[in-house]
C-alpha cells in the first residue's frame, strides 16, 4: 500500500519522530513565509541568496543563482527526512563545476543541432557548448543567470516568483524574452512549477527544470534500484551527437519500454545502439497524452528501500529521462560524498529536442502577443 503525505506526517508524529522538524503546523494551516539567507557571492561581488520554503511536509531551498533547487527534503515511510536532490555546498562549485544541478533551463532546454535554426526565413546561430551542439540555452543560459525573486504566501500555498529578462540576441536567440517561473509548495507538499514567457520578436523557447533526483537521499549511491514508469509508447532516437533523428520509434521490445514500472538498472547495460551512444538513458520520451490543457500524470519514480515516491504531471508533450551517465566521481555533494555514474537522474518535462529543426515535432515558436505557459507538478508520497 502506498501511503499519502498526510498519513506519513501523522504516523511520524505518533511515533515521536521529531514533530518540530515537520514544520510545526505549517502542513495543517498553510505555509509560512519563505526565509531568505545569504548563500555566497559571485566573483563580481553579486550576492546570491538562498530561499527556504516549507509546507505540507516538504522542504525546499532555492538559490537566486540559476533558480537552482539546492535541496528538496521529503520523508520516507518512517517519517525520516532526506534531501533527494544532488547539488553543492558552495556557490563557487555551482559556478565552476555544475552539470546543471537543480537549475532552471532556458531559453531552450535540451539540444539544438549545431546551434542553428531558421525562423521566418532568417538563420540564427546560437552559442555552441556541447561539441557541435547548443545545450540548455548555450554557454551562459538561464542556469547561470541571477534571478529576481519575490516570495509569497497565498492561502495554504507558499512559494516564490522568479523573474529574468533575456535581451534580444542573448546566446544568439532573437527577441527580448521576459520570463516568470513560479515555485509553489502546496498544503499537501506538492512542488508545482509554472513557467511563463513573452517576447517582442518571434523566437523559440523550451523551459524546464534540471533537478537530479535520488529518492534514497543525496549521496546515497546508485539510482539503478529505483523503479520508473513513463506513460509513453514512443521515444525519439538520436544520432552520435544526441540530436533526434526525427523518428518516433516504438518502445515495445526495447530497453526504452517503461510503460510498466521496472528497475532502471534492469536494461541499462543492454547492448542497444542508443544506450551505447548515450552511455545509458539520455532520451526524450513522446508522452502518449500529447500536449494537454492541464497537467496530466506521465511518470512515477519509486525507491523501494525508503518507500519514497514521486509522481510527475505536466501538460508538456515530452519527458527527457537522463540516468546520470556523465557523473564521473569528480564532483562532491553537500554530504561530502562524490557523485558517480548513475548516482542521480533527471526527469525533464519539455518539448522535444531540436524541435526548431524538426517541422514534424510540436512547435516551440513563440510570437509577440502570445504567452508561453506550461506547468509541471511533483507529488511526493511513501
TrEMBL record:
<dbReference type="InterPro" id="IPR014718">
    <property type="entry name" value="GH-type_carb-bd"/>
</dbReference>
<feature type="active site" description="Proton acceptor">
    <location>
        <position position="348"/>
    </location>
</feature>
<dbReference type="InterPro" id="IPR008183">
    <property type="entry name" value="Aldose_1/G6P_1-epimerase"/>
</dbReference>
<feature type="binding site">
    <location>
        <begin position="110"/>
        <end position="111"/>
    </location>
    <ligand>
        <name>beta-D-galactose</name>
    </ligand>
</feature>
<dbReference type="InterPro" id="IPR047215">
    <property type="entry name" value="Galactose_mutarotase-like"/>
</dbReference>
<dbReference type="Pfam" id="PF01263">
    <property type="entry name" value="Aldose_epim"/>
</dbReference>
<comment type="pathway">
    <text>Carbohydrate metabolism; hexose metabolism.</text>
</comment>
<feature type="binding site">
    <location>
        <begin position="210"/>
        <end position="212"/>
    </location>
    <ligand>
        <name>beta-D-galactose</name>
    </ligand>
</feature>
<comment type="similarity">
    <text>Belongs to the aldose epimerase family.</text>
</comment>
<protein>
    <recommendedName>
        <fullName>Aldose 1-epimerase</fullName>
        <ecNumber>5.1.3.3</ecNumber>
    </recommendedName>
</protein>
<dbReference type="GO" id="GO:0033499">
    <property type="term" value="P:galactose catabolic process via UDP-galactose, Leloir pathway"/>
</dbReference>
<keyword id="KW-0119">Carbohydrate metabolism</keyword>
<dbReference type="GO" id="GO:0030246">
    <property type="term" value="F:carbohydrate binding"/>
</dbReference>
<dbReference type="InterPro" id="IPR011013">
    <property type="entry name" value="Gal_mutarotase_sf_dom"/>
</dbReference>
<feature type="active site" description="Proton donor">
    <location>
        <position position="210"/>
    </location>
</feature>
<dbReference type="GO" id="GO:0005737">
    <property type="term" value="C:cytoplasm"/>
</dbReference>
<keyword id="KW-0413">Isomerase</keyword>
<feature type="binding site">
    <location>
        <position position="282"/>
    </location>
    <ligand>
        <name>beta-D-galactose</name>
    </ligand>
</feature>
<dbReference type="InterPro" id="IPR015443">
    <property type="entry name" value="Aldose_1-epimerase"/>
</dbReference>
<dbReference type="GO" id="GO:0006006">
    <property type="term" value="P:glucose metabolic process"/>
</dbReference>
<dbReference type="InterPro" id="IPR006311">
    <property type="entry name" value="TAT_signal"/>
</dbReference>
<dbReference type="GO" id="GO:0004034">
    <property type="term" value="F:aldose 1-epimerase activity"/>
</dbReference>
